[in-house]
Design goal:
It is a single chain. This protein has 195 residues and is an alpha+beta fold. It contains one helix and nine strands, in the order H-E-E-E-E-E-E-E-E-E. Helices cover 15% and strands 34% of the residues. The longest helix has 29 residues.
């Protein structure tokens, strides 16, 4: 004997729609939670410092008097300024398109001894890192020509480009020392090593 639904066929149709409606309503909630937890990624940038011998953030002959200015056009970051005390920075959201510019200024005893600006185009869903160091060459970037024009090509995994800025001769720790800005580009869906 087959049981009949006392509410008739209409109730069965509503019962089928409820899971579909709940699923559709839950998608924005999942996306919101995912972005808060870092599951769904947006474009981001972190400003970091290399590990070389002249990169002490509390050393006046290192990077103690470093200023970093990050600017994006249009919507997004706008402008952020970091000093040595702020570094390394936590990743922060940047626009997924348009340009970004980073300015570096290094001071020693109140005067600017190195200064330069780098600019590149942003891309969707990319995790950017701007690594700053004082060294004869960028330690992890594998560059072709350390005295070439900016930006300098690099050949290491995830290295996007490298910028070299002269340090005044009387402010260097050794002859070939320069201020380097290495831009790292990591897209979560790309493979660079063993795939």
């Amino acid at each position: 004997m087959q049981r009949r639904n006392p509410a008739g066929p209409r109730r069965r149709v509503h019962q089928r729609r409820i899971p579909v409606i709940c699923l559709l309503l839950s998608i924005p909630a999942v996306e919101a939670c995912g972005s808060l937890l870092g599951v769904f990624r947006d474009a981001s940038l972190a400003v970091t410092v290399g590990t070389g011998r002249s990169n002490g953030l509390d050393d006046p002959n290192g990077l103690a008097n470093l200023e970093v200015e990050v600017e994006t056009g249009g919507r997004g970051v706008g402008q952020r300024v970091f000093t040595a005390e702020d570094l390394p920075s936590a990743p922060f959201e940047v626009p997924e398109s348009g340009g970004i510019e980073i300015g570096l200024r290094l001071r020693l005893e109140g005067r600017v001894v190195s200064e330069g600006r780098a600019r590149w185009d942003l891309e969707p869903d990319v995790e950017w890192e701007a690594e700053i160091e004082r060294a004869p060459f960028p330690l992890n970037a594998l560059v072709d020509n350390v005295t070439g024009p900016n930006p300098i090509r690099c050949a290491w995994f995830w290295c996007y480009e490298v910028w070299r800025f002269e340090i005044d001769a009387d402010a260097r720790n050794y002859e070939d020392e320069a201020l380097w800005l290495t831009i790292w580009r990591v897209h979560p869906d790309e493979c660079a090593d063993v795939c």
